[in-house]
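Morning F.,

Quick status update on the modeling queue. The single chain you submitted on Monday has been processed. Sequence for confirmation:
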Amino acid sequence: MLRKKIRLGDLLVEGSVITEAQLMDALKQQKSTGQRLGTTLVNLGYVGEEQLLRFLAQQLEIDYIDLPNFKISQHAVTKLSEIQARRFRTLVIDEKDNSYLIAMADPTDLNRYDQIQSILQKPVTVTVAKESDIIRNIDLFYRKTNEISSLAEELQDELGSDEFELPTLADTTDSDEAPVAKLLQSVFEEAVQLQASDVHIEPDQDVLRIRLRVDGSLQEQVMKEKRIAPALVLRLKLMCGLDISEKRKPQDGRFNVKVRGHNVDVRLSTMPVQHGESVVMRLLDQTSGILRLSELGMSENLLNQFRQLLRSQHGMILVTGPTGSGKTTTLYSALSELNSSDKKIITIEDPVEYYLSRVNQVQVNAKIGLDFSRVLRAVLRQDPDVVLVGEMRDQETAEIGLRAAMTGHLVLSTLHTNDSISSALRLADMGAEPYLVASALRGIVAQRLVKRNCTYCAKDHKANPQEHAWLESIKGDKIAEVTFKQGEGCSQCNNTGYRGRIAIHEMLVLDDSMLSALRRHNVDEFTKVAKESPLFTPLLDSVLSLALKGVTSLEEVYRIGETVEQTDLLPAVEETKS
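Structure tokens below.
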């Protein structure tokens, strides 16, 4: 490592990465927050994190490491304790030739570098990596599973073998230092470490199951301490302010929890089941921030098309896909791009998931009659430039939204449809007049989330003759022998073969020929001209492109294929690991 100090701000200005005015603004902000200058610049949106780190690496003459795609040595990681790794924001990622390769979030911190060198007692080669990637890998190498099992045993011992009454159980669970509180905190820590979207607590006949939904699939931990389930449920009800005596009816609530510096919003749902009460919690990590459009995984061509749509002064843009396909993430990224002092933006959501500065966000409440259509009417009297409607749920909401899009407002919304072409037709099927749809609709983005191959255990997988024939049917042409990647399963991916997800997109920008067919509600003609559009790239082509690059597996291509119109082309395949 070159022992030289750099003035990051000046170098960024000299390199035309930021302007002098942006640097002055960041320095002013830094004085009040105490954050590092680089972090402040990223938070203000003046520079992307990866762009900043690559620039820094170039100036320091070191490498930038993309940790999600780097095979980290499990043996090397243990050379620093968890406490040291977290304090230094550093990971030892490899060991060779009697030296260590380390990834640092801030390689300009020479004092921290000297401390690490002293601990490791060997020559060190420094690289720079995203802090979020470093923290995620620290979390992965120090899993909480054993701690959860230990706390479950402790809670079982405290409850004893006798049957317990509700007042006694309430006393047992009320303290933050109680074993039940510690157990739940460990569950939340495990969930945040693995970036789980949901936590399931399910009492069974003889066991308690705690399951985390990670990358779209449930990962299960089974505990023999089934008797602790009522204590967990009661503690969660107390945190939500729910009726702890009501076990016969479903209840919904929400609360916030702090987990290792993460502010997590928890949406809770209880359901009476045969062996007690089942609890499902949706986790929204408020600390993770909103992705930029450029971070959504769109190709450069699709990104330019989407930005062009967002520059429209009026019209409707739809984002479509099944539940859990990342629609909300895309919409928030779009709003973040549009958000400026000269635009009035109002959102109608159920629920409001992330806070956006300068944006008026409205939570619908069906219990008091505050539904999407009623709020939308009120919103249009608030002089908005941009309106986000969380979902087009019914004919009334769709028609109000379409008319708003025709009268000088940019309207963003979602639909639960399989692809972009069917979304345009769905609006008419919901009862909206075809002329309204054709007059207001500007473009549609369909999307899915596909699993990334685990870089630690991914191996080559050659397409067999049946798979090869299917691939040729998709491409419509002969193709050479193809080799894909497929994760085999390891400790780094919890034996799933996958680690993380990436979005794929299909974009349909409506032209005159499509609008003409839509106005006449000619389904066959609309479908034909849409597919023939030179700008149209189907979802299946997008996921296949990622599979050919080794990012995802052929198994994921099949999964996406099952949800789009090429279903009849899918080959029969043996059951594989998911």
